[in-house]
Amino acid sequence: MTDMRDAGMTSKAWPFVEARTLLKRYEKGAPDKGYVLFETGYGPSGLPHIGTFGEVARTTMIRRAFEVISDIPTRLICFSDDVDGMRKVPGNVPDPEKLAQYLQMPLTKVPDPFGEFESFGHHNNAMLRRFLDTFGFEYEFISATEFYASGQFDEVLLRACEKYDDIMKVMLKSLREERRETYSIFLPIHPETGRVMYVPMKNVDAEKGEITFDDEDGREWTLPVTGGNVKLQWKPDFGARWAALDVDFEMYGKDHSTNTPIYDRICEILGGRKPEHFTYELFLDADGHKISKSSGNGVSIDEWLTYASSESLSYFMYAKPKTAKRMHFDVIPKAMDEYHQQLRAYVDQDAVARANNPVFHIHGADVPESKMVVPFSMLLNLASVANAEEKEQLWGFIQRYAPDATPETHGDLDQAAGYAVRYYNDFVKPNKVFRLPSDLEREALLDLRGQLADWDGGLDAEALQSVVFACGRERFDPLRDWFKALYEVLLGASQGPRFGGFIALYGVDETIALIDDALAGKLVG
């Protein structure tokens, strides 16, 4: 019988594919540092967003896969570049005008506009940690402020002085001509103002480990590159961090992919070994535009978690990471239902199938049991016909359909009922448009009504589906026009659930009443 390790060594699931590539890195023996290091980076200029979740979730999936196929210990660090200068004042903070005087100050030197932490950087770092902890990620946090100031970066910074010309050659090739004239890989922190300085170097002294530059007022300064006096520009910082920490794996969005050769080469110039990387595609909104923090398009973390579980979000992140996917509210119900379909399938799968099942990569070996005896899409339609304002309104229907189900024993179903009511009221209800049936549709609906009136087969969803099917089979070509009519006439929507299942959940008598209202024109207007 194949165990999970053997299955992982042949699985086509992308986390295992990446994990095997990483394992080849150490096929001659474990790393000298004693562990494989995964890193994910974070720019703390704003609050964590859905891209942050995706990056950590996907990195964790690869880490988990690696731990299945290898006995080498692993670590995951989340690195916050909080020495970065504040380039603009965020618009979503209290009294933003008070922060204007702190432009170009390192984020850990900008006062916290919320008045809760030592600085704005500390505030955003705390939000990041709380965010990661909420989702149960296992990670170690590193602040760039502490990393630079503590001396952990000193060896690599001194090496950057020695290799300054080599690194500058790499960088200058990638810059426009006007930018080349003022560019330096080093960004000094002004000794008086504390601001991050974007100035050219007059001299770099490799022996002393010092840089000399003029500030905006023409005054000359000489500073050691160690001790937190200097930070690296973000592209050199990427490669230098890899070298300093001996990072083995880092993933990032496609917008970084053109910089990968730059990061790699700088890492190698500084004596490091370039890590394995994974580039994922960016998310698009409903109109196909790239989702961005500044424009606020797409779905935020909080919005997704208002209408669906965090596991469904992880499922969405798992699927096709190298394909640009539209991330808008319409994808949420599908993600919920597909996640639970995979949970139900996992129970009877062998190791090979489990290694390819997304829920293994979301949960590891501890995959929960799905108690979703009613699909989320069905709950949405139930909320729609019941005009539900509270999830309790759905439970009367649910318990008739599944008598053993209770909110206490079926927590995921109870949670989903709450999500469904919210989703219905916010997205479905405002867009419901009913129409009157055509003559042919009216004839079919009357046939369905008659067969339901004579029905004595209980709440067997498949048997009821056969009845619905039979009413349309001789009348509609293609048959999907019949189901489309059911959705538009009875539910006010263009698509919907398997209608036999809906009748079983909603009730035969209730469906007859719904058909009567539709035929009488009561649902329109």
TrEMBL record:
<keyword id="KW-0067">ATP-binding</keyword>
<keyword id="KW-0963">Cytoplasm</keyword>
<dbReference type="Pfam" id="PF01921">
    <property type="entry name" value="tRNA-synt_1f"/>
</dbReference>
<dbReference type="InterPro" id="IPR001412">
    <property type="entry name" value="aa-tRNA-synth_I_CS"/>
</dbReference>
<dbReference type="InterPro" id="IPR002904">
    <property type="entry name" value="Lys-tRNA-ligase"/>
</dbReference>
<feature type="binding site">
    <location>
        <position position="293"/>
    </location>
    <ligand>
        <name>ATP</name>
    </ligand>
</feature>
<keyword id="KW-0030">Aminoacyl-tRNA synthetase</keyword>
<comment type="similarity">
    <text>Belongs to the class-I aminoacyl-tRNA synthetase family.</text>
</comment>
<dbReference type="GO" id="GO:0005737">
    <property type="term" value="C:cytoplasm"/>
</dbReference>
<feature type="short sequence motif" description="'HIGH' region">
    <location>
        <begin position="44"/>
        <end position="52"/>
    </location>
</feature>
<dbReference type="GO" id="GO:0005524">
    <property type="term" value="F:ATP binding"/>
</dbReference>
<protein>
    <recommendedName>
        <fullName>Lysine--tRNA ligase</fullName>
        <ecNumber>6.1.1.6</ecNumber>
    </recommendedName>
</protein>
<dbReference type="InterPro" id="IPR014729">
    <property type="entry name" value="Rossmann-like_a/b/a_fold"/>
</dbReference>
<keyword id="KW-0436">Ligase</keyword>
<dbReference type="GO" id="GO:0004824">
    <property type="term" value="F:lysine-tRNA ligase activity"/>
</dbReference>
<keyword id="KW-0547">Nucleotide-binding</keyword>
<dbReference type="GO" id="GO:0006430">
    <property type="term" value="P:lysyl-tRNA aminoacylation"/>
</dbReference>
<keyword id="KW-0648">Protein biosynthesis</keyword>
<dbReference type="InterPro" id="IPR008925">
    <property type="entry name" value="aa_tRNA-synth_I_cd-bd_sf"/>
</dbReference>
<dbReference type="GO" id="GO:0000049">
    <property type="term" value="F:tRNA binding"/>
</dbReference>
<feature type="short sequence motif" description="'KMSKS' region">
    <location>
        <begin position="290"/>
        <end position="294"/>
    </location>
</feature>
<dbReference type="InterPro" id="IPR020751">
    <property type="entry name" value="aa-tRNA-synth_I_codon-bd_sub2"/>
</dbReference>
